[in-house]
Every structure is written in C-alpha cells, then in structure tokens.
C-alpha cells in the first residue's frame, strides 16, 4: 500500500502571521514559494560580492530613478513571496513601508546563483514568469554568464538570451543605461 503524504500550503497572510507570532523570525532564511516555506541556501562570499557589486553599479547608473532592493521580499500572488537577490523597483515615497513590492512595481529582478542554479531556473524563473515580471536576470557565477529572461507568459518566458564577458546588457525601462557583463561578474 502506498502512503500519500499530505502537504500543507500556506498563504502570504498565514506566512506573515507565523512571523508575527514568532513561529518564524526575521533571522530565518526562508521564502514562500507556491505555498511552501522553503529554506534558502547560505550565502557564500562570491554570491555576496556579486550582490554588493550589482547594488553599487545600479545605484551609480540609476540613482534616484529606482529603488534598489537587496534580498527583500516581493509579493507575486496569494501564495508566493520570494526574496530575489536584487530587485529594481519603481520609486515610492514610503520605500514600500506599507506593502512589499508587487509585479507592477518591478522593473527587473536579478537572481545570483552558484549552488542554486537549477532551483532558480526550474522553480523561481517560471514563478516570476507566472507573476508577469517583465525581465529577470540569472547570474551564473560558475559559468560566468548572465541569462536574461523576457516576455513572460503563464507557461514561462518566451525569450531567453545568454550574455558573456565582453557583452552589454540594457536595463528595462531605461534605454539610456547599459551595464557591462564584465562589471557584474568581475572578481
């Protein structure tokens, strides 16, 4: 006889109540993905350095035209609140104090991966497409490439391009701003 395991799915509201009641704390490295609380991988030095480098570059290039958020939650729907490594957000006077950013608030999401590349490609990128995130960059530290996902649909992104050393990326919504792959991936 086969035993079917039951999984309890949570909403964003229930997830927040777990934080409020102390079941989860702000120090827990977790995110809500499709109703499941997923433990996030520890952040290594190369990953952290890439996040820091990107934040620095994006602030220099875009200044006050955006809010650059690092490893903060975004709300995609009622059962998913991931924490992308970097989010480029529309400016708001309250800096999103009253609610986490939602898809319409996002210019670009960036995930940086070394040990989590498969999870990011197979779980998070499709989730972002379903949430109608216009563009997502997946920075593959190991392969030294950046995958750019565009044209979201419920079935996934319709366009994926790979960029390597020597190439330049454009930032959605800012045709006057380009960023070199070398500056993102430099050691």
CATH architecture field = Alpha-Beta Complex
What are the low-pLDDT stretches, counting only 5+ consecutive residues below 50?
Answer: none
Cα-atom Rg, whole angstroms?
Answer: 17 Å
Q: H/E order of the elements?
A: HEEHEEEHEEEEEH
CATH topology: tt1808, chain A
Strand element count: 10
Basic shape: globular
- Summarize the biggest pleated sheet: 6 strands, mixed
The CATH superfamily appears as tt1808, chain A
Question: Which short descriptors sum up this protein?
Answer:
single chain; 187 residues; alpha+beta; tt1808, chain A; six-stranded mixed beta sheet; two-stranded antiparallel sheet; 4 helices; 10 strands; 25% helix
Structure description:
- With 187 residues, the chain is of the alpha+beta class.
- The chain has a single domain, classed as tt1808, chain A, CATH 3.90.1570.10.
- Helix content is 25%, strand content 31%.
- The protein is built from four helices and ten strands.
- The strands form three sheets. A six-stranded mixed sheet has the order 3-4-5-6-7-8. A two-stranded antiparallel ribbon has the order 1-2.
- A hairpin with a 2-residue loop joins β9 (168-171) and β10 (174-180).
- The radius of gyration is 17 Å and the shape is globular.
């Amino acid at each position: 006889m086969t035993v079917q395991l039951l999984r309890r799915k949570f909403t964003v509201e229930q997830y927040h109540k777990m934080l409020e009641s102390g079941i989860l704390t702000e120090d827990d490295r977790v995110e809500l993905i499709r109703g499941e609380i997923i433990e996030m991988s520890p952040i290594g030095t190369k990953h952290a350095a890439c996040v820091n480098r990107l934040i620095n570059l994006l602030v220099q290039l875009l200044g006050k035209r955006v809010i650059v958020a690092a490893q903060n939650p975004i709300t995609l729907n009622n059962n998913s609140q991931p924490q992308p490594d970097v989010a480029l957000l529309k400016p708001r006077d309250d800096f999103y104090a009253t609610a986490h950013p939602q898809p319409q608030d996002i210019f670009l999401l960036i995930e940086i991966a070394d040990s989590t590349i498969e999870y990011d490609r197979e779980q998070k990128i499709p989730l972002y497409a379903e949430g109608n995130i216009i563009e997502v960059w997946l920075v593959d530290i190991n392969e030294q490439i950046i995958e750019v996902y565009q044209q979201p649909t419920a079935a996934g992104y319709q366009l994926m391009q790979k960029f390597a050393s020597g190439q330049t990326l454009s930032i959605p919504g800012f045709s006057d701003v380009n960023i070199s792959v070398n500056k993102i991936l430099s050691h």
